[in-house]
Amino acid sequence: MPALEAAPMADLFAQYGGIALFLVAGAAVLAYFVFIVAAFLGSLTSRLDVGMKLVWAVFIICAPFLGALCWFLIGRRSAAATAR
């Protein structure tokens, strides 16, 4: 019986590995942009006063990931508390 060769598997990974990496990276970048846009639109449509909306919007624009993360962790709660 001939031994199984590792070369066909390496060729397969070389052929499709780049495509898979491209698709995963593209999905991560798309998720990043959706996260930031959702935070930006959420801050603008919240029930906060105009000044706080502007502060959150500028923070999300200047520090996109950190600003969006802070909005979802802190800002939405303060907006919900203001609405009561």
Automatic annotation (TrEMBL):
Source species of the chain: Nocardiopsis suaedae
Pfam families registered for this protein in UniProt: PLDc_N
Assigned keywords, A-Z: Cell membrane, Membrane, Transmembrane, Transmembrane helix
Protein name as catalogued: PLD nuclease N-terminal domain-containing protein
Domain of life (superkingdom): Bacteria
Location(s), subcellular: Cell membrane
Residue spans crossing the bilayer: 20-42, 54-74
Topology in membrane: Multi-pass membrane protein
Limits of the Cardiolipin synthase N-terminal domain: 34-76
